[in-house]
Amino acid sequence: MRAADEEAYTEYVTAKLPELHRIAYFLCKDAHRADDVLQTAITKLYVHWHRAREADDLDRYVRTMLIRSFLNEQRLRWARVRLTGAPHETPSPVAMAGPDVETRAVVHAALERVPPRQRAVLVLRFLCDLPVAEVAEILGCSQGNVKSQTARGLERLRKLLGEPIAAGLGGRS
């Protein structure tokens, strides 16, 4: 990679790293796995930087890479060897921010129990505030599929959380 390209890549990743890590954390619900998924995505971005920088919307291109890295990691997770017992949970600084930490923790725990594809749709729709069409493009599926996954994901969250907490989550299906 040329020095100018490497500098542009470094500037972009440095500026977007907090946002990308936040998305990865909400998808994985584990800071260490989020780091791994993010590292995979930005490594692929480095390899394909010449193609990525020519994309119409670089942010969308990178979010797509991140989501696909997450989904691939989920699919291949069974093949991973675990050398120790269950990993201990370490709270992420992202998870600890905000006034209502208890509600946030409950929602995060419930989101972890939502299937990966539905979780990806919910994170893109509600955390990243993306429209249905853009989420469909990122995930490589139809808009109807995104709407269906959103409805099912919200339904699952409502069942896990109970109606009072989840009432504020359903305004955008």
Task: Offer a concise description of the structure.
With 173 residues, this protein is mostly helical.
Write up what this structure looks like.
The structure is a single chain. With 173 residues, this protein is mainly α. The protein has two domains: 1-94, Orthogonal Bundle (Rna Polymerase Sigma Factor, Chain: A), CATH 1.10.1740; 98-166, Winged helix-like DNA-binding domain superfamily/Winged helix DNA-binding domain (Arc Repressor Mutant, subunit A). Helix content is 72%, strand content 0%. It has helices at residues 3-28, 31-47, 49-52, 58-75, 93-96, 101-112, 116-127, 132-139, 143-161, 163-166. Helix 2 crosses helix 4 (58-75) and helix 4 packs across helix 8. The longest helix is centred in the N-terminal third of the chain and has 26 residues, at 3-28. The chain is globular. The mean pLDDT is 81.
